[in-house]
Amino acid sequence: MPTTPDGKPLVFNLFNNGTGHHEASWRLAGSRPLANLDIEYFERLAQLAESVMFDSVFLADHVALEGVSRRPSGRLDPLTVLTAVARATSRIGLIATASTSYNDPFNVARRFASLDLISGGRVGWNIVTTPGDASARNFGLDAQASHLERYQRAEEFLAVTQKLWDSWEDDAVVADREAGVWADESKIHAIDHRGRFFSVRGPLNTPRSPQGHPVLVQAGSSEDGKDFAARHAEAVFTAQHTLADGKAFYADLKRRVKLAGRDPEGVKILPGIVPVLGSTEAQARELDAELDELVLAESGRDRLARQLGLDPARLPLDRQLPDDLPTEDDIEGDKSRFTLIVELARREKLTVRQLVGRLGSGRGHRTFAGTPEQVADTIQAWAREGAADGFNIMPAILPSGFELFVEHVVPILRKRGLIRSDYEGTTLREHYGLPRPPSRYATPSGASAGDAGSGSE
Amino acid sequence: MPTTPDGKPLVFNLFNNGTGHHEASWRLAGSRPLANLDIEYFERLAQLAESVMFDSVFLADHVALEGVSRRPSGRLDPLTVLTAVARATSRIGLIATASTSYNDPFNVARRFASLDLISGGRVGWNIVTTPGDASARNFGLDAQASHLERYQRAEEFLAVTQKLWDSWEDDAVVADREAGVWADESKIHAIDHRGRFFSVRGPLNTPRSPQGHPVLVQAGSSEDGKDFAARHAEAVFTAQHTLADGKAFYADLKRRVKLAGRDPEGVKILPGIVPVLGSTEAQARELDAELDELVLAESGRDRLARQLGLDPARLPLDRQLPDDLPTEDDIEGDKSRFTLIVELARREKLTVRQLVGRLGSGRGHRTFAGTPEQVADTIQAWAREGAADGFNIMPAILPSGFELFVEHVVPILRKRGLIRSDYEGTTLREHYGLPRPPSRYATPSGASAGDAGSGSE
Question: Which pLDDT score is estimated for A6?
């Protein structure tokens, strides 16, 4: 097979989800059910991904505990984990989830800047608005804000963090011992932000980090989410089940990016793939089926009910979804996950039991059971057909699923020129091929002093 | 000299403040003016402290930038730094400052629990209410809340974090693959906190950490601060300039602890000492004077004016402080620092210029210039006389001042039995000799189910 049209390697991200992306992965013999709490485990998996030149590792997050009894649920703070991982690796990018609904922009800007400094410019921020009332109730609210309001807050939250990251120009620190001048105050700027959600004077109390801004990642596929991504994201994680859907999403998002006045090349679209590997296709499918059987139907049904906004009693296990479901418009939680689940169930006419098994498998993402050659083929096909700039690799079982991927899939990808054979840069921006943003306050950059001084939204 | 009366080693904490505690330390030839941003520097100093069995290292924090031009000011987030340090060390305790005024309790509880898990139980939290309008303006306020209100918020903030740390019982995670039961939900508790400042449902989404609760540290010496310490602190950092003052503070605080119904042994009082070491006393004093001369009088005066709540124009450099100063009651910022500065100036009849030099030296703490033998003597004297359970070692110059301390002072302390010769435990609680708190929700612990279930303040 030929390499991709432009001959450039694809982006590869490892989604480390503890024992694996399949909900039942922790129930297999030999699993590590405490993986989520084991810092050495995170370090070793990142080192393995770095050994084959992956671009990045990614950690998801929640700020509430749900369904804890049935699967590994307690988790460490992702930025804390990735700080340890940063010191155990030297090149691979580190993407952490942080919520715009339940943080202050000053704290988030500072934590990401700190890790970007510590890691030599390898940090990305997966921006989430955090659906769900359970999270809201841990932060002083009785229920979550509406989907629209959460995105409005996210918009302003991001604007504030970007101003804070710009508040020190690159050459603000002079460290002149003789003169007793540590920093040039004319290059450190108050941001004087006053908006609907936030008032932040600034400057940040951490100097500008190697990447200027951490790489901005986004994963919501609702209309609000896609528009937010079009305006701001530099990488997009997305759940697409068919090549046709993947191509449509890719074309739609790149079009929105262009409409937003940005370079479509500056946004990397990374569909999730949950590889289940076997030496033969039959063996892979058998493993997949074994995992699906380990999913506990009742607890999966309870989660499904939450996602669909229904009483669990309305979902008998051996019937299909009821006809009178709410629409995406009624959902204030994760709109895109709602639609994806409903479309999957309707398209394949799945019973609730079957649907729960399928969702346990990919948790909404695309499971692909096959041989290493078949996995490499589908990766190549999606890239060639215009459905992906790279992939979010979410092994069903960890670490073994990723060890198999490294051993058997990566050599095929490398032979086809689909994955880099060495890091060319040192920062995540360089790995992803993204420009480094200048400080808006830097006078020689073209921004007029008047623009730079105005901090209000 | 004999060892301390009870023959137990003292507590030793290293305060790593970048280039050193003296404000002018960064201006010395050979200094590392970017030390505050250099993660390897933090790791190496902690390793050095661990090599001589120090109990802990400590990082201060601010959430605003002031006086940036004249001294190293940009700093990394302390918990981020200590996560890296945790992975570069194995025994030493790690104490990070975090503000109760500008954080959410859920996030703080989770970050400390995460680092406690990662470090094997070595974390302490220096609880600060963060004085100053500059910080408030980075978090949506036009001015800081009153001193009293900040402490009221701190009280409730701490109560919420402690409930969250208790929300998982120690044996909540069962990880039974066969049965498909990861956790025993009857051992994971909502906290249902509803108070004046916070509503938090819980539980935390991170399991209970090795120490149960991180060690609680406090440093304010105002009346509100001392009462807060008496109720909650397990270690207290304090600035005391004379042995008489140190004894009075020690006796007063231990008395308050007893009045609060706690064991005075459960609160370790650690005065700060800023050692300036020389082979002879004269050499040490010379180095101290050299440092004081490097302090830039005007910028020091500006900071002094902020601390005293005055216009800088009211502080001519070669006059003493004006007679008509505000009183501690008028100060909404750092009350205890205000009083300490005014008393020092009045007691020694210092001009503003001299005062600025002295404050640059210790930044309010006690500078002690002398030989290694003299430093060991004063440490021993304060402990024997009932002014200290240990010391917060704040070298005027880093790393050299601490290297000299390790090489020349520690062997004397060890010979006198004042510092341990090996770690006996693995957690910070064990190093400090503090009990591990049980979860309030654990039924066999003696707390009645009725008490455990009630989460309201």
Answer: 52
> Which residues of chain B does A42 touch, with a Cβ-Cβ cutoff of 8 Å?
none
Considering only CB atoms, B138 lies closest to which of A64, A139, A201, namely A201
Question: What is residue B328's DSSP assignment?
Answer: G
A240-272, pLDDT tens digit by residue?
989 999 999 999 999 999 999 999 999 999 999
Q: Which of A114-128, A228-242, B52-66, B297-311 has the lowest mean pLDDT?
A: B297-311
Q: In chain B, what residues touch A175 (CB-CB under 8 Å)?
A: 26, 33-34, 72
Strand A193-194 to strand B173-176: parallel, antiparallel, or no bridges (unpaired)? unpaired
* Structural domains in chain A plus CATH codes: 11-274+379-453 (3.20.20.30)
The predicted structure's pLDDT at residue A4 = 47
Q: How far is CA A434 from the centre of its chain?
A: 17
Contact residues on chain B for A70, CB-CB shorter than 8 A: 180-182
pTM above 0.95, yes or no: no
Q: For residue B78, list chain A residues with Cβ-Cβ distance below 8 A.
A: none
Q: Give contacts of A115 with chain B, Cβ < 8 Å.
A: 80
Which of A85, A169, A174, A205 to probe by mutation at the B interface, max B CB count within 10 Å?
A205
pLDDT digits (tens, 9 = 90+) for A226-244: 999 999 999 999 999 899 9
Decide the pairing of beta strands A193-194 and A199-200: antiparallel
The string of pLDDT tens digits covering residues B167-191 is: 999 999 999 999 999 999 999 999 9
Cis peptide before B72 (omega within 30 of 0): no
Query: Which of A42, A192, A201, A298 has the highest number of chain B CBs within 10 A, making it the mutation to test binding with B?
Result: A201
- B346 Cβ contact list (under 8 Å, min separation 6): B321
Q: Say if CB A191 and CB A160 are below 8 A apart.
A: yes
CB–CB of B216/B127 below 8 Å?
A: yes
Residue B294 has pLDDT above 90, yes or no: no
Task: Tell whether the model's pLDDT for residue A371 goes beyond 90.
Answer: yes
CA distance B367 to chain A (A): 22
Alpha-carbon gap, residue A70 to A125, rounded angstroms: 29
Min Cα separation B53/chain A (Å): 23
Does the beta-carbon distance from A118 to B39 stay under 8 Å?
Answer: yes
Closest by CA position to B201, among listed A183, A298, A139, A103: A139
